[in-house]
UniProtKB/TrEMBL annotation:
SUPFAM superfamilies: L-aspartase-like. Keywords: Amino-acid biosynthesis, Arginine biosynthesis, Cytoplasm, Lyase. The keyword Lyase applies. Its EC number is 4.3.2.1. This is Argininosuccinate lyase. It comes from Ureibacillus aquaedulcis. Belongs to the lyase 1 family. Argininosuccinate lyase subfamily. Its main location: cytoplasm.
Amino acid sequence: MTKLWGGRFQKSAENWVDEFGASIGFDQQLVMEDIEGSIAHVTMLGAQGILDSKDVEQILGGLAELKHSAEAGELEFSVANEDIHLNLEKMLTDKIGPVGGKLHTGRSRNDQVATDMHLFLKKRVAEVVDLIETFQKTILKKAEQHVETIAPGYTHLQRAQPISFAHHLMAYFWMLERDKERFNESMKRIDILPLGAGAMAGTTFPIDREKSAELLGFSAVYANSMDAVSDRDFIVEFLSNASLLMTHLSRFAEEIIIWSTDEFKFIELDDAFSTGSSIMPQKKNPDMAELIRGKTGRVYGNLMGLLTVLKGTPLTYNKDMQEDKEGMFDSVHTILGALKIFEGMVRTMTVKTEKLHQAVHSDFSNATELADYLATKGMPFREAHEVTGKLVFTCIQRGIFLLDLPLEDMQSESKLIEQDVYDVLSPEAAVRRRNSLGGTGFDQVRLQLEKAKACL
Ligand code: ARG
């Protein structure tokens, strides 16, 4: 079979060489973008008088038909035609004859593939941003229902201080807010058109790159043709943003998993987001959360993969760059899926308020309250910390909690302690009184929810 670039060759490659070099197996996902890019390119060629209007019309007609077939999923790609660009060009010439060969005037697959990738990511990043925002809305809604639900807050996964459960959920809202911001900011660098860079040095044809940019909805064109065909920064940046997003989702997933255990039982996942065990009938596993945690690995891997591919490549295009695709597609697919699943999982989960209530009433997470109480009464905080620690130790020995300790016993450590200590020690008071800006106090959490709404 003759290659579209076969003129210089005397001998054809072995089948397995073709197979190894082909990207059609995965870059067919760029079919729409490739056609869009070609439509803009040929329109520009016509407007510049590089191709006459009859040719342009014929090519546009052929491309429209290809687009139609692509939408219907009717195109049949072949490895012999290597990649999406050559496959489509072949289909075009099969359809409209040799005039189809004029489409590639003043263009190279190098600027073409870079253009496709920019177009593709522009659309997908917009989808990612939308899904992040949907998820944020769900978190916000859940948080609104749990402002006054007190839960244990942790450091080192040890009970630390009581918190509003809404405050805990909202921490993820803000991580996602920064993720959204990062994806939005990256748009500026995705929104640049490489088309017109040719193979790498520009072209002798009097093309109008600004016109192509306008037709494709890009805000700018690459200023340097060599950079244009070599740049994969925008993909690295996407993979990096995707990795950080997955870090956040993975941490949240880990909490969902912990919270669903019998040991915690702070939440219960909806049946729709859980699975059973094939052997243990009692099990309800948080598979989706585990899978999101697990899939974080491949998203990191895709970032490392592309960085490594790029690091040794001289300017400009090298075939190595074909390796930019599968990881990117995979990360797009993974984060879109993870966001959708996570949103549903949080929306449908039940928060076990009684269990949380019970938890905060049977621990020492109010110990800081006692230390703060003593400090407020003038005792240096270090000393207050020591006194409180001793009282905690006394409680542990007796198998009781601070609220159960009689006043005389407290006073044996410090005369500063009076009856009002019991009001301060209640977990509700502990939360309410943490009214510093950004703290877990109910008023602060309400303020935070207002700020969050303003971000959506
Ligand atoms: N399939 C190639 C890729 O994805 C398209 C660009 C090929 N360019 C070339 N000069 N071989 O990178």
